[in-house]
Write a structure and sequence with these properties.
Keywords: Hydrolase. InterPro entries: His_Pase_superF_clade-1 (IPR013078), His_PPase_superfam (IPR029033), Phosphoglycerate_Mutase (IPR051695). GO terms for molecular function: fructose-2,6-bisphosphate 2-phosphatase activity. This protein is α/β, with parallel strands linked by helices. It has two domains: about 170 residues, Phosphoglycerate mutase-like (Rossmann fold), CATH 3.40.50.1240; about 50 residues, no CATH class. The two termini are about 25 Å apart. It is globular and about 55 Å long. The chain has a six-stranded mixed sheet with strand order 3-2-4-1-5-6. The chain is built from eight helices and six strands.
């Protein structure tokens, strides 16, 4: 079964505005975040979604609900399924901290004091592994732990009895997760040095007949 996924980054939150790490934390949408959700809802209003998923964080669910409310092509509108598998990565001890300070703590001991430098020198997976290493409680997710959880989320979609081949599915997700997805599956075909904007849409095909490593083909990023 091949599905066409429309993955939306949630609207702006206060932690986004303040440049703080926001993984499993639940900062609410700002006024701009509500506008982000409504604008992308209008853009996607003519897409016939057979199913709708989101992270179970408030920011993702509110964004998804506003998108579905504006959708006129899906009859009936799908019921939103919010699952923890599509949460942003868990930053552990560093949840809510200033991004610059957190990435300095993670990458500084390795000679890479910023997120960009960690990725450039060691790869994106190292951002998760270095942060877990720097976390005094080691609660932050490693790269392996993060992808195991996300893969289980796609297994939930693949087992959805309502879905048929070539159906369209909405997922409201998170910035670093979308960046990570394109980094892993998009290769050099896409510019993925920065997270997509709040309210942007990333499109990809998901083929549940293939192994996870081969199952995703990026169509567009952060549009």
């Amino acid at each position: 079964m091949k599905l066409h996924i429309y993955a939306v980054r949630h609207g702006q939150t206060y932690f986004n505005r303040y440049n703080r790490l926001q993984g499993w934390s639940n900062a609410p949408l700002t006024a701009q975040g509500i506008t982000d959700a409504d604008e992308v809802g209008k853009r996607l209003s003519q897409i016939n979604f057979r199913a709708a998923y989101s992270s179970d964080t408030d920011r993702a669910q509110v964004t998804a609900q506003r998108i579905l409310k504006l959708n006129i092509a899906s009859q009936p509108r799908p019921e939103l399924k919010a699952i923890m598998n599509f949460r942003e990565q868990f930053y552990g001890y560093f949840e809510g901290q200033d991004m610059g300070s957190a990435w300095l703590a993670a990458g500084g001991p390795h000679g890479a004091p910023t997120y960009t430098q960690i990725v450039k020198q060691f790869g994106l997976a190292a951002t998760r592994d270095f942060l877990k290493e720097a976390d005094p409680f080691h609660d932050a997710e490693s790269d392996t732990e993060y992808w195991r959880r996300v893969e289980q989320g796609f297994q939930v979609i693949a087992s959805d009895p309502q879905l048929l081949d070539n159906d369209r599915v909405l997922i409201v997700w998170h910035g670093n997760s979308l960046l990570s997805l394109v980094h892993r599956f998009g290769g050099s075909a896409y510019e993925h040095s920065e997270r997509p904007k709040n309210g942007s849409v990333t499109c990809f095909d998901f083929d549940s007949n293939l192994s996870f490593e081969e199952s995703i083909r990026i169509v567009s990023y952060g549009q």
